[in-house]
């Protein structure tokens, strides 16, 4: 007997028939003697609809109320899953974030989990009850509902698995595992049997939405045995593991892309000490994260150019902040471009192999794709290119690094 966590994403609980299908898997695990916690997302499309309601309700809205609205999708599916399990003869009870309680900080819309109290759930396990937990939600120190950022049900599941000391955390979704690239745009993407926590973390943070980045961070920290598998077939999926569990390490294990980027360029910025601090300080104060940065060499030793990226949803605010700072910064021109995509090559093997970046630049050059910004870390290289080249760039890199399926 073991404790396990099973998470079902939106497409896996998109209607009653699919919830029933997921419930049959839960029943099988419960009947084989396991203590099961099921974590569910909202039905596919529901959270988008709820976000859209709030967006249209008011231009500026209170994020505390946004959380009240957008967390409601998971309330529905947790109740339905419990009803269906009960109907199948499986004792089950639903749990909303505040009932567990799953405590978070106060960062409404994108809260971080601080503690999961599993006392009551574990007590019910002893009575043979399955816990059905509404994902994506928690409560803050004031007792108000919070949400964990889009895709946050993955993080609810991993946090619960860590708190329960679960033997496995299975993420059931609409793909049968983690692929070398998004199978929706790369038909030749290959399924990975295993991927390291570190690579998965980079892939997720660089755009592979199959797991929310924070869920991988948490799994890595608490060594949760995380598996991504399909709701629709029996294949074993992908295990996220420690590096030493992988015998043959590929130099490059995946290509990710993110359309969630926008580029800001400041031209003719006076080149003097403190310029960067005066640009990025006010952006940080406004809660705007800056990702890639390039500063041009000052041609005339007086002025320089600064290009950087922010999240698309932060672009308007970033421009506003910088316009307000213009008299102090004294830059000549500001341009903003949201028609860009960040394409990244990821692999732990890069630590010991030179030339990965060079082959990336060569491949893109051969396709006539201009690189606008570059950033690197120990195990990834990212470039910013025009959005219209997304598919071409990702597919040609996938081929160039020998990742295509036979
Ligand atoms: P869920 O609703 O189950 O949480 P998501 O839509 O959040 O599912 O995540 C699954 C999707 O992630 C897949 O349909 C796929 O298009 C996308 N994806 C992006 N990159 C990858 C990748 N490298 N491997 C697998 N899926 C990926
Ligand atoms: N329903 C939420 C979303 O769509 C959380 C999740 O599905 O993981 O973002
Ligand atoms: Mg998801």
Would you kindly provide a written description of the structure presented here, covering whatever features stand out?
By secondary structure, this protein is α/β, with parallel strands linked by helices. It folds into 2 domains: 3-247, Acetylglutamate kinase-like (Carbamate kinase, 3-Layer(aba) Sandwich), CATH 3.40.1160; 248-400, 2-Layer Sandwich (VC0802-like), CATH 3.30.2130.10. The protein contains 12 helices and 20 strands. Helix 9 crosses helix 10. The radius of gyration is 23 Å and the shape is globular. It binds adenosine-5'-diphosphate, aspartic acid and magnesium ion. The site of adenosine-5'-diphosphate has 20 residues, from loops.
Q: Notable features of this structure?
A:
406 residues; alpha/beta; Carbamate kinase; VC0802-like; 2 domains; four-stranded antiparallel beta sheet; globular; binds adenosine-5'-diphosphate; binds aspartic acid; binds magnesium ion
Give me a quick take on this structure.
The protein has 2 domains: 3-247, Carbamate kinase, CATH 3.40.1160; 248-400, VC0802-like (2-Layer Sandwich). It has helices at residues 16-31, 46-57, 63-70, 72-87, 119-126, 153-164, 197-205, 213-222, 275-285, 315-329, 356-366, 390-400; strands at residues 3-8, 35-40, 92-95, 102-104, 113-116, 130-134, 137-139, 145-147, 168-173, 194-196, 226-230, 238-241, 254-258, 261-270, 290-295, 303-311, 333-337, 340-346, 373-377, 380-386. By secondary structure, it is an alpha/beta fold.
């Amino acid at each position: 007997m073991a404790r396990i966590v099973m998470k079902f994403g939106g497409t896996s609980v998109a209607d009653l028939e699919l919830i029933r299908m997921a419930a049959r898997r839960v029943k099988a695990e419960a009947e084989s003697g396991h203590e099961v916690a099921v974590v569910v997302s909202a039905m596919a499309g529901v959270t988008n609809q709820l976000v859209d309601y709030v967006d249209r309700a008011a231009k500026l809205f209170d994020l505390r109320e946004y959380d009240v609205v957008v967390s409601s999708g998971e309330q529905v599916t947790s109740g339905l899953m419990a009803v269906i399990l009960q109907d199948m003869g499986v004792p089950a009870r639903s749990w909303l974030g505040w009932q567990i309680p799953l405590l978070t900080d106060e960062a409404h819309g994108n809260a971080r989990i601080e503690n999961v109290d599993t006392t009551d759930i574990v007590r019910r396990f002893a009575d043979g009850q399955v816990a059905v937990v509404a994902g994506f939600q928690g409560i803050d120190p004031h007792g108000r509902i919070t949400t964990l950022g889009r895709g946050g049900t993955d993080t609810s599941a991993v946090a619960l698995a860590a708190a329960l000391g679960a033997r496995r955390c299975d993420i059931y979704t609409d793909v049968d595992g983690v692929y070398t690239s998004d199978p929706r745009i790369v038909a030749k993407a290959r399924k990975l049997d295993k991927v390291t926590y570190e690579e998965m973390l980079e892939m997720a943070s660089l755009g592979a939405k199959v797991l929310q980045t924070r869920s991988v961070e948490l799994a890595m920290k608490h060594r949760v045995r995380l598996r991504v598998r399909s709701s629709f077939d029996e294949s074993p999926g992908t295990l996220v593991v420690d590096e030493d569990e992988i015998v043959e390490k590929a130099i490059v294990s995946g290509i990710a892309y993110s359309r969630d980027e926008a580029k800001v360029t400041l031209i003719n910025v006076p080149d003097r000490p403190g310029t960067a601090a005066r640009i990025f300080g006010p952006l940080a104060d406004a809660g705007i994260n800056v990702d890639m940065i390039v500063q041009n060499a000052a041609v005339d030793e007086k002025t320089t150019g600064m290009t950087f990226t922010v999240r698309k949803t932060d672009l308007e605010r970033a421009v506003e902040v910088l316009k307000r700072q213009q008299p102090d910064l004294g830059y000549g021109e500001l341009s903003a471009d949201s028609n860009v995509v960040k394409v990244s090559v990821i692999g732990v093997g890069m630590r010991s192999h030179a030339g990965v970046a060079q082959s990336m630049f060569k491949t893109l050059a051969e396709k006539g794709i201009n690189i606008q910004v570059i950033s690197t870390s120990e195990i990834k290289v990212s470039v910013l290119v025009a959005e219209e080249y997304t598919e071409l760039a990702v597919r040609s890199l996938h081929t160039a690094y020998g990742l295509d399926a036979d």
